[in-house]
Here is the input.
Amino acid sequence: MSLAERTHLHAKPPASAALTPDASAWSIAQNPAPWAVAVILLIMPLLANGFFLIEIFGTTLILGTVALSLMFLAGYGGMVSLMQLTIAGFAGYMVAVLGVSGSAKISLGWPWWLATPMALALATGFGTLGGALAVRTEGIYTIMITLAIGAAFYYFTNQNWAIFNGHTGLNTIATPQFWGVDWRADIPFYYVTLGVAALCYFAVVYVSRAPFGLALQGVRDNPRRMAALGFHVNAHRIAAYALASLIAGLGGVLQVWNYRQISPGSVAVERCIDILIIAVVGGITRPVGAFIGAFIFVILRTFALDVLVQLGLDGNRFRLLIGLGFLAVVFWSSDGVVGLWEHWRRRSAPSSYRGGAHHG
Amino acid sequence: MVRRSSVLIAIGTIMLSTTAFAQQQKIKVGVTATLEGTYTVLGEDGIRGFQTALNVLGKTVGDKELEFVIASTDATPDSAVRAVRKLIEQDKVQILLSPLSGDEGIAVKNFAKTHPELTFVNAASGAQETTYVDPAPNFFRYNMDGAQWQVGLGKYAYETKGYRKIATVGEDYSFIYTQVFGLVLEFCGAGGQVTNRQWVPLGTKDFASVIAALPDDVDAIYLGLGGADAVNFLNQYQQAGGKAHLMGGSIMIDQTILSSKGSAKNALIGTIAASGQADTWDDPGWQKFVKAYQDAFPPNKRFPSPSLLATNYYDSTMALILALRQVNGDLSDNQAKLKDALAKIEIDAPNGKIKLDSNRQAIGTNFVTEVVDDGKGALFSKVVKVIPNVNQTLGYDPAVFAKIGLPSRTVPECKKY
Here is the structure.
């Protein structure tokens, strides 16, 4: 499978970088960009409000978190899983089913602090089970089996009325309110998504350098040799699925709090493919790629229609513009936007960094 | 220092006054339609109905102008909520004309509760739950729901056509449940039997297994499909050699299907149906509307006659503009005056008089129709019966109606309530 192979090839530099951790990568003077981004993200509520804060940046962080789980599996584990959005959707559905929603007949009405961890645990279990099925396969077969799980889940939610409330889905889902704060209000919710996204991001960065992450990258590069060294290859892969499922589940919980509504359209096959597009466009070798890809995706999805109408073209063709945008990115850089950025860095400063770890 | 701050204040006041000025001059209205997915054709014709209303009624309210922003959905509830949020948060619309499809309606109604200061006028969606269960005080629906649109069909099938046993095939979501609900209540109430109800997911392309499972021992098959699904079903049904008598739902026997390309639609000639409109009604108001619709678009960019969606969008837009004119565009005090006017307004719509009940749900006129060929290959729905003043409880006592339950795959049971 070309995609999986390509991630193998391109993922090697960060793997070697991860083997030689470089403390200077975190200093402000040497590497100002990540710090600038962090500060901008922190003061975002001062710069943007309402629509931009939640619909653009909040959604970017949520989709980025889900795509991060795919990046973790594909970049470090060499496993392209198309069911990450399904796991996120499963977590979202569980929040609605276990917690409080408009469909009193279905929802169990648990408080959020009980429903949310339970939803995450169930989603992790669901993703780990799916992963246990998928690790028996390689390359395109992994893609197919995870896509099959995603498609099956979509059709199941569409036709099951007892738990998932069919095509209507679940509406008016309650969001957490405690310490006198409505956590779904724009600014608190933005910080919740930012906090979760940052947590997941640093967790992935940390794990990629921890013994488990290094072993996983070893499994990715040469499973036979790792097996010969005494590593349990499939156990590592399943554990990677478990971690990725937890991350995707967190994204799903945020997503359902954001829209306060979930229905089969939220877990449709197209949405699963969107996550793959986000990860590939951003660059599948670096955790930050997931968020960059999500940002580009959200911007295109939101404004393509308006741009076409402004240019006097038929607004109905806005998906074409989205497709062309993705085509251009992938054509110019097989390693996504992160690849372009590295290319440019290397060119402008040839001596300072060679495959340095620009995490963030 | 003092001078500088006074300059700043002056600039600030100018900016404030210009924004206030701009707001006074324009009223922003957000419109959604299904311009993607299975119901694309329906959404496009809905927009045509909306534009026809603007042509007829004009875009001004007193000295203010109406500005419209259109957003696209794909008949899924999430796409509708996303589009409505974009319109409110990015485009800053003050009034919503949304949405088109059943489950979208339920989601948007629930969303409307989170914006009690704004006004939501339903564009065309027809699920019963939207206004019957826990309605939103700022959500107004000027079209009837799916069950109201089936009034008269069951009795006509039983008494005039002599059908005793029927089976149904419908899309698996709230609007079609509501349609089958209306049909089953009346047909079974008259003494008929509904032996089999099949449900297919919205967007189904392969109907082979559905067609194979259709029972032979029934007098007619009721089709509750719409858009691309309906056309796909008819093509495959014709190829399979199907010959049963057909009955149709409100978006099945509609110009969106009757003017589709190919010969499959000919299977529909003679089909009986019921809907909130009939193509060949001779009422002068209806004829005037058809003429306005036909004049507004070249023949290849429209249907021969407006579809139910065009009519619904027309009626909703008409109610909104007339109510806005009654209050002279006054949107102060969280649009209280406008909401009051919308709740009380009675419109003389092309498809009969419409007024709202206490849930802000339309009470209107329904039509039983039969599909005819106009001799030139175009199909139209011909009026068989006109039923005025159809309310949401379909003439049942509200307490009895509440006991029937909400429309679903199996509700209502086939019996007399």
